[in-house]
Specification:
This protein is an alpha/beta fold. The protein contains one helix and eight strands, in the order αββββββββ. Helices cover about 20% and strands about 40% of the residues. A five-stranded mixed sheet has the order 1-4-5-7-8, with no helix packed on it. A three-stranded antiparallel sheet has the order 2-3-6, with no helix packed on it. The longest helix has 26 residues.
């Protein structure tokens, strides 16, 4: 019986630790983030400067991208764009294009950082879930709101 109590205590504390990491992840979300640009006027065909995405996730209403790029001398900008067209599937799917602007920064440092984007402009009427399909990548994420 003692071994069972010890094992149950271990499971309980592991569950608490898992909840703590979720609370930390939510606590680090910004109060504001640039919105995803969606609609027929979104410039999804324009050029982007090179970058890599090492990780992508959806937390609450935010897309979290872990990006890396070369630079270090200027501020860099990122945009997440969509033409706003959803597939006729369930959940509806929408394509996302990610653009990076180095603003003339040709320094050679390697920058690794998180970028956050507000997904609320993509919410589809009549459902609480959409599938985000990243163009030029094999990434697919579900956004549940």
């Amino acid at each position: 019986m003692r071994n069972f109590t010890v094992a149950l205590s271990g499971v309980f504390f592991a569950a608490l630790a898992g909840c703590g990491s979720l609370q930390r992840a939510v606590a680090e979300l910004p109060e504001e983030a640039p919105e995803v640009i969606a609609g027929p006027n979104a410039d999804i065909r324009g050029l982007s400067d090179p970058f890599d995405i090492s990780f992508a996730d959806v937390i609450n209403d935010f897309l979290v991208l872990h990006v890396s790029y070369s630079g270090g001398c200027e501020d860099h900008d990122f945009e997440v764009l969509s033409n706003g067209k959803y597939t006729a599937t369930y959940p509806p799917e929408i394509e996302l294009h990610i653009k990076h602007y180095n603003n003339g920064d040709y320094c050679r440092g390697v920058i690794d950082e998180k970028r956050y984007f507000d997904l609320r402009p993509l919410q589809y009427p009549g459902t609480n879930r959409i599938r985000l399909v990243f163009v030029k990548s094999n990434r697919i994420l579900d956004y549940i709101y």
